[in-house]
Amino acid sequence: MQYDERWHLDAPARASGVVILNDRQEVLLVQERKPGLEGLWHLPSGSVEADETADQTAVREAHEETGLQVRLTRFLNAYVGRMPSGALIVRTAWLAEATGGTLKPVFDQEIADARWFSRAEVEQLSASRRLRMHHTRLFLEDAYRLTGAAPAPIS
Fold this sequence. Notes:
Layout: E1 13-20, E2 27-32, E3 41-42, E4 45-47, H1 54-66, E5 68-82, E6 88-101, E7 111-117, H2 119-127, H3 134-147
Parallel strand pairs: 1-6
Antiparallel strand pairs: 1-4, 2-3, 2-7, 5-6
Domain Nudix hydrolase: 11-145
Organism: Deinococcus sonorensis
Pfam family, one: NUDIX
């Protein structure tokens, strides 16, 4: 076999989420409440459960963290990163549109707030190190590129 198990990277953790843009091309971010992460912002996302597919996780997490029901409209990308423990994680995200619900986190013991941010505001969050994950920036760049919302990547 040309490519056997030596070519495999084990990524035991998987997470999935959504990029939701409104009519003004603002992105919906959620703010962490959990100790050690409190105050940091990221895309609605979370761990893929054993009985779920990644797209099911994205829809579930969007609702839990924002209160909104969503419809996935396009797969954005998959990125491999590291957990604080050093273990690899595969993160996937979809472009999504809100189809119902009320903007209010359902899992408010984990999420303090959910609100819309302009591109300039996201750049300020990034510059002040208030984005939780680098993947937030990457997925947002993917979404802007696909929708034609902004020609330049987030700095």
